[in-house]
Amino acid sequence: MQIVPMAQRHIDALALLERACFSTPWSAESLREELANPHAVFRVAVDGSGTVLGYGGMHHLVDEGFITNVAVTPAARRTGVAKAILADLAAYGAEHSLYRITLEVRVSNTPAITLYEGAGYVRDGVRPGFYSHPTEDAAIYSLYF
Question: What gap in Å lies between CA 97 and CA 100, rounded to an integer?
Fold first, then answer.
């Protein structure tokens, strides 16, 4: 597995992954727009043949990072893909002297919460009713540097 910057060649696979993982997925066009966003830090996990295994996106604003999405193909889950993506984003954060990286996660998403806590993220609070389809609170997590 290798972690690489998101490129045009990944967009179609990432849009499919979004639809498989999220009730309100990002479109191919939304992902494509991130390629031109100077604040976007998107990383893709690929296998030796270049097949997309997962991806993570973050926006870097001043001294903070805001993770937008982390998604892994069902076949590659629980194999360290998400952990590697988070580690790559954390390395970027350390290299760019970020104060912290934050994210939101559905309060019912126990596997993701376990992943984030295992990667050193701490729970900062809750955003009531943040998610739709279905409506659910979001737990706010941060990784402090």
Answer: 9
> What is the average pLDDT value for the chain, to the nearest integer?
96
Q: Which of 122, 81, 84 is nearest to 105 (CA)?
A: 122
Rounded Cα distance between 105 and 92, Å, is 21
Q: Which residues pair with 139 in a beta bridge?
A: 105, 126
In this model, does residue 27 exceed pLDDT 90?
A: yes
Q: What is the C-alpha to C-alpha distance for residues 11 and 9, in angstroms, rounded to an integer? A: 6
> Rounded to whole angstroms, how far apart are CA atoms 70 and 44?
10
Mean pLDDT confidence for 114-132: 95
* Mean pLDDT in residue range 76-91: 96
- Per DSSP, the residues of 6-73 read --GGGHHHHHHHHHHH-SSPPPHHHHHHHTT-TTEEEEEEE-TT--EEEEEEEEEETTEEEEEEEEE-
The label of the residue with tokens 């939304």 reads 30
Helix/strand/coil percent split, the chain, to 5: 35, 40, 30
pLDDT tens-digit readout, 35-61: 999 999 999 999 999 999 999 999 999
